[in-house]
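Quick one: structure for this chain?
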Amino acid sequence: MLLRYRGSEGMVAWAFHRISGIGIVAFVVLHVFDIFLAGANPNAYDDLLKFYASTPGRMMEVLIGAALFYHALNGIRIMLMGFWPRLTLYHKQIWYANWVIFLGVGLPGAFIIMRPALGL
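Got it. Here's what it folds into:
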């Protein structure tokens, strides 16, 4: 099978780190643009704020929050292994610990962000 995936946790962590980094860059570009709108066209800025408060806007906020949080956790994992190379023996366990922290903190955070859209 030529298209069969042969990587492991390290490769998935690398791919997610790169993808989340691209999402963060996209967020920064969007944020600079919406700050520009505040001064250039206040009405368009108000419309954008209404979109951010909508369900799709809140879902995008959850996604960017997830990207930021994953990127930060994985960056800490990478730094720890850089400072203490013996930790590379446990990179899989540390990566799974990242996921436990990510889900344990991220899911309640996502619920808080989505609560108004859910009518709660």
